Automatic annotation (TrEMBL):
Gene3D superfamilies: Anticodon-binding domain (3.40.50.800), Bira Bifunctional Protein, Domain 2 (3.30.930.10). GO terms for molecular function: proline-tRNA ligase activity. It catalyses: tRNA(Pro) + L-proline + ATP = L-prolyl-tRNA(Pro) + AMP + diphosphate. Homodimer. It comes from Reinekea marina. Consists of three domains: the N-terminal catalytic domain, the editing domain and the C-terminal anticodon-binding domain. This is Proline--tRNA ligase. Catalyzes the attachment of proline to tRNA(Pro) in a two-step reaction: proline is first activated by ATP to form Pro-AMP and then transferred to the acceptor end of tRNA(Pro). As ProRS can inadvertently accommodate and process non-cognate amino acids such as alanine and cysteine, to avoid such errors it has two additional distinct editing activities against alanine. One activity is designated as 'pretransfer' editing and involves the tRNA(Pro)-independent hydrolysis of activated Ala-AMP. Its EC number is 6.1.1.15. It comes from the Bacteria. The keyword Repressor does not apply. The keyword RNA-binding does not apply. The lineage of its organism: Bacteria, Pseudomonadati, Pseudomonadota, Gammaproteobacteria, Oceanospirillales. It is found in: Cytoplasm.
């Protein structure tokens, strides 16, 4: 690819609404652009990365014996009525009508559709196991889309579904997929952990999440410091033995603990782009309030002064607004500054629990990065309780070692669904004795678009992205220095460009003219994160040398021109 013909779309400044590094770098490196809340366009560089991820996923699933299919994103409501999920899915599901007034949904997931295929296409135990997958867009009307493609509304998922005649067969395929997932995440070059998980909305029994370790992650993983035990915190609590638990000690800040109605009101009333402005909510308690909560302060991380408490006075919500002075009184903040406020954990959690149980909203308690509860599920009192009860220092449920907490990004999730969907949709096959038998089902998801962000969270520095080789948009970048003064420089650069491409490398040749300074060219390549960079200059060529730098290393080196290709290979 020639830079002169390419849309690199890099930008210097980090947009104010991007709070985590991957979101900032994806915008700055020109990978994506936001169309509307939770909706992103993939630009050429981003799309190259996506395709790389998809290829690895496809190769490993094909190798594991799964069959690729492609189902429509738009699905008839009837199927969802059959499983009872048309209503049960709640606000996450985007519903629509066609011109004949028939109900449809934009698929948030595809269990219903694939089970419909299975009941029509599979008739005998002899055809089983059968494992289908697709790489397809999903739409989930996330209450709070955020962090760019990390939690978007439309996103690409690899979703897979397997069908079985008995539990033994399901166990075997579940294991097979578990192994395939490990190979996929190994090849993607990610630092991850498979963890025991609850199966949530999907129903069923066994379940593992694949968590990419990152401080910005929204999930918390509890793992034993001296065994293989790892579980997401909800699950760790569920399997934890009763007994003495260490007392929480750290101080933390309560952030992002909005009441659903309140936030919706705020957004509507002030037309606030939620990702951009609402960063921190501070909740304060009072003896005399009916709900035990009277003050609510909204703080935008970047625009502290734009959203002040008095601006929110008109908000009518289940929470009453206190005057700004009173809030300041309560939290002891100096005028002009509205937080954050450090409060002891038990205090915070008790208030958050009250908030949650009263209004059924989710909470995300950050501060010392302790825990977080997802928005889309029925996050309630019990889940906050669960998490509250896990602190470092607790004994591991496996009996070995003590629990430590890490933050993670859920990039994959596998479940044993049992007969939840096959029963509802009457997906039977004839068994060995010629008797109709309800099939058992497994399901396997990977967040393709989320992986791009997760990879960046783990691989970056202050100059930009540092792609793992397997998913880099280009493997090699070539910068000819002052080519307008030296035809030989351009000649050598062109020759390297052709040779490397013939060897199968994807190469970005920065052939932009002298209006783009070398400094800008270097900065762009580092921002985009190309693993190998070759600089061709007059001075080097005089000694038969080019300059080489690996993106992940600090040092550059002079390499003989005729050895540079071997070095990269
Ligand atoms: P989360 O807990 O983050 O909301 P989930 O448990 O609802 O995710 P699953 O139903 O398990 O998601 O879907 C499979 C995978 O799809 C997830 O592991 C995740 O990687 C990805 N995914 C889910 N929701 C989103 C989203 N809103 N944006 C991007 N990727 C997503
Ligand atoms: Mg979700
Ligand atoms: Mg989840
Ligand atoms: Mg999940």
């Amino acid at each position: 690819m020639r830079a002169s013909r390419y849309l690199s779309a890099t930008v210097k400044e980090s947009p104010a609404d991007a709070v985590i590094i991957s979101h900032q770098l994806m915008l700055r490196a020109g990978l994506v652009r936001k169309l509307a809340s939770g909706l992103y366009t993939w630009l050429p560089t981003g799309l190259k990365v996506l395709h790389k991820i998809e290829t690895i996923v496809r190769e490993e699933l094909d190798r594991a014996g799964a069959l690729e299919v492609l189902m429509p994103t738009v699905q008839p409501a009837e199927l969802w009525h059959e499983t009872g999920r048309f209503d049960a899915m709640g606000g996450q599901m985007l519903k629509m009508k066609d011109r004949h007034d028939r109900d449809f949904v934009y698929g948030p997931t595809h269990e219903e559709v694939i089970t419909d295929i299975a009941r029509n296409e599979l008739s005998s135990y002899k055809q089983l196991p059968m494992n289908f997958y697709q790489i397809q867009n999903k739409f989930r009307d996330e209450f709070r889309p955020r962090f760019g493609v990390m939690r978007s509304r439309e996103f690409i998922m690899k979703d897979g579904y397997s069908f079985h005649v008995d539990q033994e067969c399901l166990n075997k395929e579940y294991d097979n997929m578990y192994q395939a997932y490990c190979r996929i995440f190994d090849r993607l070059g990610l630092e991850y952990r498979p963890v025991l998980a609850d199966s949530g909305d999907m129903g069923g029994d066994a379940s593992h999440e694949f968590q990419v370790l990152a401080d910005s992650g929204e999930d918390y993983i509890a793992y034993s410091d001296s065994s293989d035990f790892a579980a997401n915190v909800e699950r760790a609590e569920a399997v934890m033995p009763a007994g003495e638990r260490a007392a929480p000690s750290a101080e933390m800040t309560l952030t992002d603990t909005p009441n659903a109605k309140t936030i919706a009101d705020l957004v509507e009333q002030f037309n606030l782009p939620i990702e951009k402005t609402i960063k921190t909510l501070i909740v304060e308690a009072s003896e005399d309030s009916e709900h035990d909560l009277i003050a609510l302060i909204v703080r935008g991380d970047h625009e502290l002064n734009e959203i002040k408490a008095e601006k929110l006075e008109g908000v009518k919500s289940p929470l009453e607004m206190a005057p700004e002075e009173k809030i300041r009184d309560v939290i002891g903040a100096s005028p002009g500054s509205l937080g954050p406020v450090n409060l002891p954990i038990p205090f915070i959690v008790d208030r958050a629990v009250t908030l949650l149980s009263d209004f059924g909203a989710g909470a995300n308690i950050d501060g010392q990065h302790f825990f977080n509860v997802n928005w889309d599920r029925d996050v309630s009192y019990s889940r906050v309780e669960d998490i509250r009860n896990i602190v470092e220092g607790d004994p591991s449920p496996c009996g070995n070692g003590t629990l430590k907490i890490l933050k993670g990004v859920e990039v994959g999730h596998i479940f044993q669904l049992g007969d939840k969907y096959t029963k509802a949709l009457k997906a039977d096959v004839l068994d060995q004795n010629g008797k109709a038998k309800t099939m058992l089902m497994g399901c396997y998801g990977i967040g393709i678009t989320r992986i791009v962000a997760a990879a960046i969270e783990q691989n970056h520095d202050d100059k930009g992205i540092i792609w793992p080789d397997a998913i880099a948009p280009f493997q090699v970048g070539i910068v000819p220095l002052n080519a307008h003064k030296s035809p030989e420089v351009m000649e050598v650069a062109e020759k390297l460009y052709t040779q490397l491409q013939e060897l199968g490398f994807e190469v970005l040749l920065d052939d932009r003219d002298k209006k783009t300074s070398p400094g800008v060219k270097f900065a762009d390549m580092e921002l985009i994160g190309i693993p190998h960079r070759i600089v061709v200059s007059d001075r080097g060529l005089a000694d038969g040398l080019v300059e080489y730098k690996a993106r992940k290393d600090a040092d550059k080196s002079e390499v003989k021109l005729d050895e540079i290709i071997a070095l990269i290979q």
